[in-house]
Predict the 3D structure of the following.
Amino acid sequence: MEKQALDSSSTASAVAPEDAWVHTYQRLQPQWQSFSLSQQSTIPVSISRVNQVDAARLDIEISAMLKEQLVKVFSLMKPGMLFQYEPELDAFLEFLIWRFSIWVDKPTPGNGLMNLRYRDERTMELRGKVRTGLEGPGLTVAQKIWYCVATVGGQYIWARLQSFSAFRRWGDSEQRSVARRAWIMIQRIEGLYKAASFSNLLIFLFTGRYRNLIERALQARLVYGSPNMNRAVSFEYMNRQLVWNEFSEMLLLLLPLLNSSSIRNFLRPFSKNKSSSSEGDETACPICQASPTIPFLALPCEHRYCYYCLRTRCAAASSFRCIRCSEPVVAMQRHFGSVSNVVPKQ
């Protein structure tokens, strides 16, 4: 009996520590995980500044293309009528882009081409560690509405205010003091906004976050929509553009240095049809292609020219050749006249 009791007690002592370790591990595991997550900081995410700037530029170009197509619709209407409502047209196009992109949780056309989307940065500050640094919810309804109010309504109101103040000439010294003060206030607000935008640009170039004041005020940050998508650049297209630009610059440099008449006369003997020029209108001057007012004949070929055309060509080139037959012109004679004017060679 004593032996069995000793065996049971030894078995209990051997099992008890193992169960205690398991229960202790299960009890402390959640606390340890929370402690380890609190010690880890958020993974820093770096978004290309070039992509963000290119996305903004693409949005501007797409808006300009839509505006151009919309203006063509009203091309047959009264001239200048659409110019009066240009701020309304710009606001309408900006509202359409906002309505079918940001409002429905989709990127704008420029952001979509650059693989970017808006993220509510306020929620990321309350979270702990994230998996890739690109997670996070999109903009809230309030952020979307304030974004529309600032980009669409703010720009429209400011454009109308500037045009109204310029039309009423608030800036003239002869206006009332109230209008003059309002004009000075508008100029100061515009200067402060430009200074703040420039400061935000410097901060954006340093940190890579919030490319304009509206995004910084709303804490709407641009992040990559897909972490596996890279920026694609077609170097073949870029090479073609560079080659064409260099070729066009070379032509612009060489064309003023070339004498077109000399080149034409040099290539005339190699042409297949040498008499093509003589098959044209024989009564017209081959230089100005008009009927000669003071007709003169080139000797010895006796082709008719205008006096001033033939005289200036002979004075400019000592070895001037007839454009019709390529023979050297040694003299010129008035048509139906007996006086001959010899052109001396220089």
